[in-house]
Amino acid sequence: MNYGKVLFIYVLITIWSFASISSAMFSIVNAEASGQEGGLLHHITVFCQILLEIIAVTHLVLHNRRLNKTGTRIVLWVLYAILITIFQHTELITDIRIILWWPSVYLLFYAISSTDTGRYKELLLNVFVPIIYLGCSAIFVVLRLAMFNVFSFYTASNDIYYIILLLPFIIFLKNRGLRYFCLILGILLALYSFKRGAQLCVILSLLLYVLIDMKSSSMSVFKKIMYLIVITGSVIVLFFYVNSKTEGYIVERFDEIEESGGSGRESIYTSVIKEFRMQDGFNQIFGIGLNGVKNHFHVTNVKDGRSYSAHNDFLEMMVDYGYIGLVLYLLLLFSVFGEIRYCKKTGILSLYQSGLMGVSMFLIMSTISHLFLYPTFVAYSFMLFGIIGGYCKMYRSQSRRIEELSM
């Protein structure tokens, strides 16, 4: 891709990020206060999504021979999902736009990275990522304060994921002070979001990053132990400091997991599996269409009686697209994991660390929430996976050329 096109994509992602998180948080407040949702921010979000999807599809048609294994499997999944949607849809155009979202992001950033000499990566990681991260953090704080006028202070907010899913990119920042500031900011905002999943994502992924960093470091054993103690101790102190400021609410939320069944998730999972088993063989094999659990099963949460999605990507994928769709989805995820392992094998440590952070967050969220189902922050995970896939493709191509020249 040429520089102008890449810059345009980065600008679109930035505008989409700000509009999407603002729209999501505003809609919550407005829906409660005035019963209205949507608005200009929502339209900007959708407009940016459609533009990015058009660019991705156009580039794919013109340059399809450059796809890697993950990209090929993503395209197969998309074609299958669209086919099922045509026969099972409720709102065809909207459903197809949602289906195309995360595959488009992967394909775009794969295309950018697979031919990059370092210029595009530098522009993204040290210019646009900090702008998006700090901008989304500011929007989150401001609108979170506005939400306190409508909801309880302790209301959990899913919109924290717009911030924490960018953390795997933050470790690339050259400015060490900015890097540590962003990491600490991410931990603090995750704690004050009162989302247990977000808190687990941040703490476990950062711990994983520290352990890998220690293993690859040339520091003495004593310094490594002290490093681990300082980092772990700092996170623990920060956790219990925020917990004390919230009158013990954060710890209380974790204590009530067993009693509440994970905020009703246990009852949701049980109901989804029961309903799926009652489907005929055709629907089990091919699925019932996008957001099938909420649209057709009408599974309710025992806590509030409202209809919900499966709150588990793998269950949702099985219901929406059947066994075939689930297998295709798992195959493309296995390809992503393979590319992350390839980074370790070839010594691309920074991509390996970032990839492990990203995939650990992705798996935690996929198990307890819904990523692929809505065209929102899942973009950041597949942006990372696309970058890793692109650089792996480029590295393999260079290795083959070197082998051919040496023969």
Protein model, in words:
With 407 residues, the protein is mainly α. It has one domain (3-406). 77% of the residues lie in helices and 0% in strands. The chain contains 18 helices and no strands. The protein is globular. Mean pLDDT is 84; it is low at 31-37.
> What is the CA-CA span between the terminal residues?
31 Å
Strand content: under 5%
How many domains, in number, for the residues? 1
The share of residues in helices is over 70%
Mean pLDDT: 84
Low-confidence stretches: 31-37
> Order of helices and strands, N to C?
HHHHHHHHHHHHHHHHHH
Principal-axis shape equals: globular
Number of helices: 18
Largest sheet: none
Number of extended strands: 0
Structural class: mainly alpha
Radius of gyration: 22 Å
Give structural attributes.
407 residues, mainly alpha, 18 helices
In short, what is this structure?
77% of the residues lie in helices and 0% in strands.
List the helices and strands and how they pair.
Layout: H1 3-33, H2 40-62, H3 69-88, H4 92-113, H5 119-147, H6 161-164, H7 167-170, H8 176-193, H9 196-216, H10 221-245, H11 249-255, H12 257-260, H13 265-277, H14 281-286, H15 292-297, H16 313-345, H17 349-368, H18 378-406
